[in-house]
Automatic annotation (TrEMBL):
It comes from Pelagibacterium lentulum. CDD domains: RcnR-FrmR-like_DUF156. Belongs to the FrmR/RcnR family. This is Transcriptional regulator. Gene3D superfamilies: Metal-sensitive repressor, helix protomer. The lineage of its organism: Bacteria, Pseudomonadati, Pseudomonadota, Alphaproteobacteria, Hyphomicrobiales.
Length: 90
């Protein structure tokens, strides 16, 4: 069973909180709130996204690189993680 399926409810809850943060930014912009307040909300949303990304990446590393059943699965898991890291760092 994949870690994203096993942790599905927890991950969805984090995405929903992130969605709420993004909607809060939209409301703040619409209400013409001061830029300092908007920047704080942006930083908070960015932190939440980074935290979610780190959690999924860590679980991918554990399940698909460190603990797979075959070397072919380990190679595939490593390849996927490398692609994600390159995209993340762009």
């Amino acid at each position: 069973m994949s870690h994203t399926i096993r942790d599905k409810e927890k991950l969805i809850a984090r995405v929903r909180r992130l969605k709420g943060q993004i909607e809060g930014i939209e409301r703040a912009l619409d209400a013409e709130k001061p830029c300092g307040e908007i920047l704080r909300q942006l930083a908070s949303a960015r932190g939440a996204m980074s935290g979610l990304t780190a959690e999924v990446m860590e679980n991918h590393l554990r399940e698909h690189v460190l603990l797979p059943e075959t070397d072919a699965d380990r190679q595939q898991g490593g390849k996927e993680l490398i692609e994600v890291i390159r995209a993340y760092l762009k």
